[in-house]
């Protein structure tokens, strides 16, 4: 079977981990510092903070910008976070974990990202934050989103913070810039099957020095590890925090993979360009949007098909793993109270299938995928 996802582990990772294990220091230490310096350079933004997963990063981001006490947020008003249902549940359970209400925004069937018209309609004085997902690595139109926030600021006198879930989007660019440079909190995942893996890990990129300072403190109990004595517990904790930091073992894996990550992303993109050429115009199958100002990282290759069950069965028979990969989050019992009419999501969930497009897909594999897709029509 051609898998839909695979772990991109470099040969150097084993020795790098061995070195850390033998060093006597396996917690957050010099290797995390080195990894963060390298990540800051890649992203082009010095305000980075590694964490032990994107889930932790999203939890911490929401805690910092939208977290409320159970009785309500600022002014006693219960706040809400606007979010997309088309993502891994990690995105949305991080909102629930912060005890803030969630409000679904519909999905744009053209991009599979949040529907920005619906988002603009749903911003209100209760909006504490907006979570967007660059689904499959295709960037949300961040300039248009910024314009919507300008308008919200004019109407309501405040600008809700945007949290970008970049879990699929290492290597993606918006208007030529890597994600993490557009004035929002951005959270990347370095989980096992992402373009860049630490085994497990994540990265927060912060838009200002104050949020950066808080993220670095709150990822480790609120204790300042950089202060003299490296985080002695006798230091006063002004704001309590979590245990979300990355350790040197995971950082060593990430560093060993970092130099290969550009090539990994390039191979995803090269296979995607082949599919774009070969699958355009195939009846019964629709490609998603490609805007000129956006470069997708193509974590997987999404298509919309008329006969989803038949398509997936044909793929399976031909030894190709294909499926939605991530399913709508809004139908689970634990979010029943937030149910909303989402026609875009309905359309997508009946048609979305993702094809393998990653670095492991050879020229022969991708031709086999195209031939199998075309043979069905
Ligand atoms: C869109 C999205 N957000 C968040 C996560 C959570 O990432 P992590 O496993 O690093 O916590 C994932 C994981 O696949 C994801 O796909």
From TrEMBL:
Pfam families: DegT_DnrJ_EryC1
Cofactor(s), names only, from the UniProt record: pyridoxal 5'-phosphate
Positions carrying N6-(pyridoxal phosphate)lysine: 194
Keywords: Pyridoxal phosphate
Gene Ontology molecular function, alphabetical: pyridoxal phosphate binding; transaminase activity
Active site: 194 (proton acceptor)
Gene Ontology BP annotations: polysaccharide biosynthetic process
Name this protein carries in UniProt: dTDP-4-amino-4,6-dideoxygalactose transaminase
Species name: Allonocardiopsis opalescens
């Amino acid at each position: 079977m051609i898998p839909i996802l695979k772990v991109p582990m470099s040969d150097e990772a084993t020795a790098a981990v061995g070195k850390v294990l033998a060093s006597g220091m396996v917690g957050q230490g010099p290797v995390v510092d080195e990894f963060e310096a390298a990540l800051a350079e890649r992203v082009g933004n010095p305000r980075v903070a590694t964490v032990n997963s994107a889930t932790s990063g999203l939890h911490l981001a929401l805690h910092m910008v939208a977290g409320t006490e159970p009785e309500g947020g600022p002014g006693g008003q219960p706040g809400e976070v606007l979010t997309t249902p088309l993502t891994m549940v990690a995105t949305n359970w991080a909102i629930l974990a912060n005890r803030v209400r969630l409000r679904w925004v519909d999905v744009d069937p053209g991009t599979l990202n949040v529907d920005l018209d619906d988002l603009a309609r749903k911003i209100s004085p209760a909006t504490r934050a907006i979570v967007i997902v660059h689904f499959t690595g295709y960037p949300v139109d961040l300039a248009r989103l910024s314009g919507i926030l300008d308008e919200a600021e004019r109407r309501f006198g405040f600008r809700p913070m945007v949290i970008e879930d970049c879990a699929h989007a290492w290597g993606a660019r918006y208007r030529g810039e890597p994600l993490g440079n557009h004035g929002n909190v951005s959270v990347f995942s370095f989980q096992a099957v992402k373009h860049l893996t630490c085994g497990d890990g994540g990265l927060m990129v912060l838009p200002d020095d104050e949020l950066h300072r808080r993220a670095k403190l709150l990822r480790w109990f609120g204790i300042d590890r950089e202060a003299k004595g490296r985080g002695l517990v006798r230091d006063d904790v002004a704001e309590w925090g979590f245990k979300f930091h990355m350790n040197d073992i995971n950082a060593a894996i990430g560093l060993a993979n970092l130099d290969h990550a550009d090539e990994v992303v390039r191979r995803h993109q090269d296979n995607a360009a082949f599919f774009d050429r070969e699958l355009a115009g195939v009846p019964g199958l629709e490609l998603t949007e490609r805007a000129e100002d956006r470069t997708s990282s193509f974590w997987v290759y999404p298509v919309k098909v008329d006969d989803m069950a038949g398509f997936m069965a044909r793929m399976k028979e031909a030894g190709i793993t294909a499926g939605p990969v991530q399913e709508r989050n809004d139908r689970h019992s634990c979010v029943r109270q937030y149910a909303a009419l989402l026609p875009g999501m309905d359309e997508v969930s009946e048609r979305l299938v993702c094809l393998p497009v990653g670095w492991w897909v050879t020229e022969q594999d991708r031709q086999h995928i195209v031939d199998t897709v075309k043979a069905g029509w």
